[in-house]
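Entry for methyl 2-azanylpyridine-4-carboxylate complex. Fields follow.
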Amino acid sequence: MRIDVVSIFPEYLSALDLSLIGKAREQGLLQLTVTDLREFTADRHRTVDDTPYGGGAGMVMKPEPWALALDAARTRGPAGAGAPEQRPVLVVPSPAGEVFTQATARELALREHLVFACGRYEGIDERVVEWSREHFEVRPMSLGDYVLNGGEVAVLAMVEAIGRLVPGVIGNPESLVEESHSDGLLEYPVYTKPALWRDRPVPEVLLSGHHGRIARWRRDRQLQRTAARRPDLVAALDPAGLDRADRDV
Ligand SMILES: COC(=O)c1ccnc(N)c1
């Protein structure tokens, strides 16, 4: 998978040099390039913003630098030989976007080329989004209902959520199976040594070695936790995925 990120604060994305994503880049599992939008300006001050038409507070990001930067990212193309099979996906982090979920991460982890456009100020001139539709699948994307100062933090979260699903990035793919949202439920609580810690014991069943009882206990905890913290997820569950014991929780 190829990932391109365009930002006026490329150093914000240096966290992607670390840990699992950093290692995946070294191993060639992910090709990730971060580009400074200001490289695509033509004036001495490397201007990327201007006042909004129609008035209002703040500044808007100018369209031309973005068009040049996105064209450069697109033609950098996905890994491997030949013309890309799919159009690249242009992800535009925005509180006005579709909500990014684990399902979105799974969907985007299957794509060849993702381009992330980090907006700042009051946002990017809307004509860039319209212009981009010719060569990209354009996806304004929100992490939830709150506002950030720029798209960079959202890109860090999305690249991690997507990148970890790319085959080979996580050493043990088993650990992807039972995590939150993988089956529509929140994950169960986890424990490790010591068995007794500050007068708090580990739940007995987890020490029993009885795999069936442990699986049942974990599933019950998932259902209870999800019902308590995310009733919206319970409402969205497919009843066919619940067995009789689930319904008794
Ligand atoms: C500038 O970007 C944002 O404020 C943003 C991006 C993604 N999700 C959000 N909830 C906000």
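NOTE: The mean pLDDT is 94.
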